[in-house]
Write a structure and sequence with these properties.
alpha+beta; 25% strand; 205 residues; 7 helices; 10 strands; eight-stranded mixed beta sheet; 34% helix
Length: 205
């Protein structure tokens, strides 16, 4: 009995050590990039009006970056809800290593107060950023993304919509992204990847 117990404890310890070791690309569930995407350098404004240097302010963290807008009818609220759920699923010590950054693609309507109030409905830790249309377009282009485009007026006084790319970029503490989650990603997969990425990054493969 003692020998069997000792063996079981040894196996459990080995499994724990393996799962807590540095993360590798092959473990990720989300679509992996062929090459690491360098974390872009752009400066926008937080909802309190202070500048936010994206690369510097998120250094040493796992950072989820997403572009969208408050009046988005489907993609944005679902992505944000999934990110909030995934974040809450993490142990506190891992959660502290994650930043979620949301950049509005509709600065004309997404005032700082409105943006802060809307994001807080999902998670109070979410960082909302805004800027001039030119600054936001430059930030998107720095990732190779097509800039968001304003659509025509919606019927019955519904305002206007905005066409925008919907991927979530996941940057690791090495200041690069190795996984990108498109619209439709399962929240369980997003949470699993966050648990992997917060373990530390050993690089490919």
């Amino acid at each position: 009995m003692k020998r069997a117990l000792a063996y079981a404890l040894t196996v459990a310890a080995a499994a724990c050590a393996k799962s807590s070791g540095p993360a590798r690309l092959s473990e990720l569930r989300g679509p992996r990039l062929e090459r690491g995407m360098p974390k872009p350098e752009f400066v926008l404004q937080r909802v309190d009006g202070t500048p936010f240097d994206f690369r510097q302010a998120t250094r040493g963290t796992v950072t989820l970056l997403f572009f969208g807008y408050r009046n988005c009818p489907d993609v944005c609220p679902l992505h944000l809800a999934n990110m909030a759920w995934a974040l809450r699923s993490l142990p506190d010590v891992d959660r502290q290593r994650v930043r979620v950054v949301f950049v509005t693609t509709d600065p004309a309507r997404d005032t700082p107060d409105q943006l802060e109030s809307w994001l807080s409905r999902f998670d109070a830790s979410f960082i909302g950023l805004t800027g001039t249309p030119a600054q936001i377009e430059a930030a998107q282009r720095s990732l190779g993304m097509a800039p968001a485009v304003r659509e025509g007026e919606l019927p019955k006084g519904g305002g206007y919509g905005i066409t925008h790319m919907s991927q979530i970029w996941a940057f690791t503490p090495d200041d690069s992204a190795h996984v990108m989650n498109p619209f439709g990603v399962k929240r369980e997969d997003l949470a699993a990847d966050l648990r992997i990425l917060t373990r530390g990054w050993s690089g490919p493969p």
